[in-house]
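Supplementary Data S3. Sequence and structure tokens for construct A.
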Amino acid sequence: MSRPESASGPERRPMNRARARLLPLLTTTLLLALEAPALLVAQAPAGEDDAAAAEAIERCVAALGGQAAWRAIETLELTGRHTSFSHTRPFVLRRKRPDLYRFDHNETSFPLTVAFDGETAWWHTGQPLFSKASWPAEMPRPYLAGTAAEAELEPPFIDPDAKGHRIEWLGESRFEGQLFEELRVTRRADPENVERWFLDLESHMPVLRMSRAAYHGYLTEQITYFEDYREVAGVLIPHRVETELGNDLMIMEVERVKVNLPIDDQVFRRPLPAGMERLAPLAGRWRVAIESLDDPTVHPERLAAWERDETVSTIRAHFGGSLLEEEITVTTDRPRRASRRWSYDRFSDVFRLVHFDTFTEHLDVLEGRPDDEGRLVLSNRETGTAVRLHQQTLHAREVLHHVQADSFRLDREVSVDGGETWGPEIRFTYTRIAEQDLPARP
């Protein structure tokens, strides 16, 4: 097939050759994708389109190894060399059914991870060139659908009806003087991005895809070439993929393919903020033993003054685990319902607990860090949210400690001298409720 020539070595194609040859095609095909294609040279009558599409899909799937062989694959791991911005570095691309995807590679001289966990697309780079963040962050909207489409383990022609894809036969199209069979693919995850696939008339293999993709935050034309198909586990996989996006050329050269390698789902999930790893075990369903004092100034040795109760609590993780939220009811001492929200502030390097209860009806903000004993100690001593009670200013402190997989303890303390000394108010002991111990859903 006639096509733009590759530059020598890993360099990008010269603009004056590649783009000059592609622009006429882009303007007449991509911009008119939803209208009658200008390059078609043969097209079936409207009533025969569905049958022609089905036959083309059948031929293509057979050429790629067949649906059964593809469905036998649960995971794929591709490794090799990735070239972009004239830099060539190793890459690892992993896919897992149903729609998990992770691509670790380099853009210029720094690493870049692009991933999809089945619901959320995220990326992570050591420099905020693309994501404007140096931590793992959700991808902006223009990138979401394209990343979700890349997450499909198999080509879109494998059982498209089950995936919700629509595939239309456009007949034979001429690309740079050569005839191809052309299919129009509309994916369920991205119905506005119509893809045009060109199949070789003899092998029926996909050799070219035209689509739109995000480029520096904006959607623009993308052309992808598929070459060097090799058989792996009964299916054919391209071992060289070249993508032209905007002014850039990216080349992926596959050196090794591993099939059905065990890959944990956690690999595809966005990592927690560094601080939230400490709090992650708190998420779940808990049985809570509560001990409280009717007067915060009572000395802790007076055990008879402690009032005991038990309740059940659920701590839920939100925003990918970046926020933990709990609502708990305390019936001892002063009955109250309380809400707690745990988070970590990466910019100030502090943990933050926002507490609200129906007794004070006051939003209390506590901040702190782990102490020398490994306890997480948070107080409102410096946040300005202390309460006034009985003509006294009461500062609050919560101490999280003995955190294990199935239990942890939380002590709430108060101070009447500005935080110089602290006395106990409530002690919570959390024990995880096993799944089999949960009540049946109605």
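Construct B, processed identically:
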Amino acid sequence: MSIRRLPETLVNRIAAGEVVERPAAALKELVENAIDAGSTRISVRIADGGIARIEVEDDGSGMTPADMELALERHATSKLPGDAIERVTTLGFRGEALPSIASVARLTLESRMPGGDGWKRIVDNGALVAEGPAALAKGTRVLVEDLFARLPARRKFLRSPRSEYAACLDAVKRLAMANPDIGFSMEHDGRRVLDVQGAQDRLARVAALTSRDLAANSIGVDLDRGEVHLGGVISLPTYNRGVSDHQYLFVNGRPVKDRLLVGALRGAYADLLARDRHPVVALFLDVPATEVDVNVHPAKTEVRFRDPQLVRGMIVGGLRRALDEHGFRSVQRPAEAALAAWQQEPVAPAPADRLPVRQCAAPRTRRASVRRRHGARRRRHRACLRPARALHPVARAARGPRRGRGCAGPAGRGASARHRAGPDRQDLYRRGG
């Protein structure tokens, strides 16, 4: 079998298998491009969980028609002015997102620079179908329709629209949390599900995207060790969740899910939480670009540190120190004014003609009397059924077959052998013969 060079469309589809795993991955790449373009407001609209439609619009710098043509080619990017990939500071740098998405969906790219005219290019599953002028404000609009429509083998592995929508919402939340100076809005099937304004501080943005109660039940973290800075907010041990979906970790403004950071976070709360409980945290780690490698995962969700022990020790030590300083705080502690409002209800004195409670006899009820009568009957039965010593052959013959387990007296049904033997034979029982 000879080796052949793969066509460009097939190469893009292979690359899309790594970059565009699901609609949330495509949405993440488009929002990262909007952030790198210097946008101050990003609007996201999806339909059917992002499978049918994904639209991202920003007010960034925009692109010229020539740049739009290059942007749809593989490994073409404006985020690496030099060849030093270890010094990358932007979210995207590979130049694979747009051509990979365009190879597995219908992509419409519209952009306009300040003072210029808008331009539009439409690519349907890797083939250019139309281009021309477009009417839009300054910025860029990207529309992705019918993701994996011509790849049924890939589309059948997608989850339900509800699950895909949850993944898209989580991706937008993480990017919005890492950029509090940018406003974000998101609509799903025409319904507004997220709307945060720009120019916010980190604590306000984290509380707006997680829970309003986090601001009152959280601790601020601010630690410097050399050129490494750790900041953010962590919840009190009493404010926790059963799942770890509210743990947001960022490295140089990039949302990550790194095992080292997750393990360090678990170690910091090891003595304070049960194994099945998880804190609510948003940690921002800033390290020099040369001390971390972000080009180790296709989706750029994992990183590698040059000194991982320094990072782990900083997270565990910094979080434990912050928790120890606030060790006496608990979730939703009531205010002093609320505690002072409690009053003891006055108790009226008892009448003089009534006896104390300890001198009053409890009335006998029918249930109690029945219980006592049944208890006496059970005791008589146990006495009758108690195993006796070996009987004399004459007494055994006189007893006859046993008729029942009850006891109704010496002459009753089921009487014991001793009762039925009569007074002439009872002396045998007394002597044991």
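Residues 389-433 form one domain. The chain has 14 helices and 17 strands.
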